[in-house]
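Why this split exists: single-chain examples teach little about how molecules sit against one another. For that reason, every record in the complexes split bundles all components of an assembly together and asks for one structure covering all of them. Below is a record exactly as it appears in the raw files.
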Amino acid sequence: MKRKGSGYFILKAIPAVILLLILFLVPLALIFSYAFQDGGKAILNVLEDNYTYYLLSFTVKQAFLSALISVIAALPFSAFFSAYSFPLRKTILTIAQLAFTIPTILVVLGFVIWYGNNGFLNNALRSVLGVSYTPLPILYSFKAIILAHVYLNFPIAFALITARWTQLPPTEENASYTLGQGKAKTFLFITLPRLSGSIASAFILIFLFCFSSFAIVMVLGGNPAYSTLETEIYRRVHVNADLSSAAALSLFAFAVNALLLALTTPGRKERKNERQARVLKKAKGMKLAQAVVLSLIILAFVIPPIASIAVRAFYTKDGIFSLSAWEGIAGRGFGLIGGSVNAAINSLAIGLVTAFLSVWMGSAIATASAKRNSKLLPFITSLPMATGSVMMGLGFIFVTSFIFTKLGIRSYYLSFLFVAAAHLIIVLPFSVRTITPGARAIPDSLSNAAYTLGASYGKTYRSVESPLLRPYRRKAFAFSFALSLGEVNATLMLSSGHVETIPVLIYRMIGSYDYQGAAALGTVLLATALAVFAIGEARWRKDAIL
Amino acid sequence: MKRMIVFALVLLSAVAVFAQPAREENVLTVYSYDSFSGEWGPAGALIPAFEEKTGIKVNLVGAGDAVQMLSRLELEGEATDADVVLGITDDFAYRAYDMLSPYQSPVLEDIPDELEFDKEHRLIPFDYGAFAFVYDSESGVRKPESLADLASPEYKGKIILIDPRTSSVGLGLLYWTYNQFGDEAIDWWKEVGENALTIADGWSSAYGLFTEGEAPIVLSYTTSPVYHVMNDNTTRYQAIIFPEGHEATIEGIGILKGTDMREEAEAFVDFILTDAQGDIAIANSMYPANSETELPDAFAWAPKPAIMYTSLAIPESTRTELVEAWTEAMTH
Amino acid sequence: MPFFEIRNIEKKYKEFTLSLSLSIEEGEFLSIIGPSGSGKSTLLSLIAGIESPDSGEMLMDGRDITKEKIQKRGISMVFQDFSLFPSMNVEKNIQFGMKEKDKAKRKELSDKLLEIVGLKDYGKRNVSAISGGEAQRVALARAIASEPRMILFDEPLSALDPPLRKHLRAIIRSIHDSLGITVLYVTHDIEEAFAVSDRIAVMQGGSIVTVKEAEDLYRNPENLFTAFFTGEGTSLPAHLLFDNTDAYAFFRPESAEIVEDSISEDMYPRHIILSDCRVISAEYTGSHYMLGLTYKDYPVLVESSRKPKKADVSVKIPKDSILLLR
């Protein structure tokens, strides 16, 4: 059923949708048109090739397992974090999102430094156990792929599910307990269905993320048999330079993902008016001990790989303290201190603009789709996730090439704008998916009450509905900012090498053998993210009502 | 309020964009791969030096990696802005020839004949490197003596390879093995693949694993030790020269057919082949094409192989078949 | 001309159609009762402008407002779940719909309204920190503050406990009386409707069965549905008592009287006598007993001031209090 004012909200979402169409769908359609050259021969080839299905089955298998395990792992933590308040609760929620900010190459490096056969963990175990073999051979196997994917994506599941759970008053659960049902049954039949929206949302986001993953799969999997569709698309674009077959395979992958998205995009949901959000109980005694244990588990999982990067920035491989990497950043060659400060400013500026716009557009689209009960809007906004980064990159090249060459416009600012726009397209699905459950949870009667009091749709949105979205927007902002901060592929492709962000410099340093310098810059990136999150939390806490 | 600020920001930047002069005339446009054109790349110092020396303004465009740059040139066709393209590698040279016009540079006589792309000099080599296995001499592992030696069981889990499907370095190794073993190249991969700790997606992660001590042998370049000598002051990491020969990779520069700044383009090419050689070699960790170039002492740790193959000799159809055969053999 | 008039309005849903006409006089307190699913809330949604009808029209002061925007109708609404805005404190909630622009005057007005609903000094409180009864009083104050021409109440008291309900309905009625505002009040609690309304409309299956004053509705229901909906009673097939009809004879428990001695119809020509009734239950209600009897296997309800000593009794009902209904 359409809700009052759905027309107004659709109108409000139109600029966001148009931007999306121009920036994303048009170039994508152009690229896919390559797949149809020669009467679609490339597509036929893809469909007839057994290799395609081999890749698809592995891709789906690893993505499915990664998403499933991430969600299951998040549930017990979300259960506790949405029921109890304790010191540092918010801080831990924030830290859990840090993994998001690091570019893949550094995640791989962090994993190797921590979990590697010669990493901190194995070396420590070796000296404790007094053995010479590798006590925990985790990496270079299928489970390493899953571990890394869960590492990267656990925060999505944790944040989305916790946000929703915190808003569910436990009345139905209590009813179930009074009917003599145990915790397990109550959770399975009462709580899980109530959480299904956010669980599905988290699952699909993670699935799509892992669907197009390939660096992690290849390096940490350790076996060429572990390769995803994206690997092959990458090969066709970057090694073979064969656009039409790459487009054909992309189209195939896109179709699979789009189908999946269409099936799982949340549609009509009956809403229950819940006057009061759940009140967090203060954790005391045993519960406080439990809080400490759970927090430590999260920290023990999240911190070591990223901390490894920071440690690596200060210590040489032989364990000698050295500031050479920092001196390297500061003093190398062509006025690089200017370079890295400039890069930090660029990263921050692009990250903030991207995050603000993505939250704004995400709110507009999420509210419009909730008001209209639309499946189409969230579906369209999620499409960038279904596309895969290789094809997206190519699409961006098309657009910039057109603007640069055909229109003859070229400027630093334009490159800057392009990068921000590309980041926006990449983070928007996260933003929409994060805010939508919040928008759907706003009771109709609340909005109607405002309308009958003579408040316009705009005023009602600003003063009644929007404040209810605040916790969701906060999540969306954090995700968007973190993703933008760590983004490197689109930045490189779009800026013609002119817009240097921290991740771009990290790639450049690695390209010239300076892994310690890269780790130092990675540390700068993490510190930047942490600072912005901390400022954000402080500011939000001040004016938070919910 | 927040929204207004963002709007203002976007609006401001949009104004700034359109306030720019649409297109500057008399500027030489050079396409290069990103890592060359970035602020941190060699261009940061070279372009100002060139502009000062010749008075010619340069607009350096980073066009992605080498393959993307080529794709972009193909896409833009004759409408392209580019006057010069820098960074086409030997394996894709055949696709670039049609877009380029020959240039008989006076510097050519200082460039060894074995680096030559084509007789007409549409592409001119400006630097080159050779793929090689680099090993950690302090790891206790025996220094391998040949490609075939790498299949020895003692190297089980001690080698990091790179996937030819996603990396030009990995592809280089595939061509290398083909040039050396012919059709038995795939058998080599199968055997050595058994010894590999992992087959990484690209050089960056492979070399990162190597310096973190995950495995003592990695596929890289003969020039890799130079960095460690210059920056870490260590000779621990050494490139291994195999007597049977190495695969080379050559980077070329060329002048686009449609250029309306022929003279300036030639000046730029000559500059790259002379004054810029040292900086480019150091920044790219490659050997300079111009044999007259003086290099830092550290380059003594970048031994030049006596025998070098290039992929210029391998026909295009064979290359595709090679990768397909590789994929078939390694993923099933 | 009535103040507010609904003419042949129709709204179709998958399994339900609302179709009715209704008029309300200015300053009237009209209640709408009916079982759940009869369309009460839908009717309010249509009047408020939350939903729009498929056909028909609505007039206020003779002006067609069917297509009027929800914000412009000047009809405010009080919801069952209070629907206070969690982003604002009590005072800001009340000031939300005010037409007055001056800050001091707004404050003055909201303070006054809070006093009227008995919540003096609650202005700065957080709306999630007040009780249900307090929340509904804030909602009431908020509805009044927007100076509506009519207020709609959608089961405003059903989430509250009974003593509070009685107290609040008195507040609502007294505010209506002092402001003279038109009120449309939906409830499923018949006692509540009787207590506060000028007139009561009964809804069933999407249409209005009848509109009457409370007493008239109770005494002269149009049909069995209304009769049973507005209070307790007994219905017997009329042919058991009279011989002419296939309708039902209906009477209220307080009209009947039990007789423990044997009596004959001849002694009471103006009554109907049900002899050979059996007492099944006797519930004491505080002021009287409510007796459950059977007469020829039909249940019969009779009010009595004392508990019968015998199990077999007769019931005597004045003929003029028996209604023939269908």
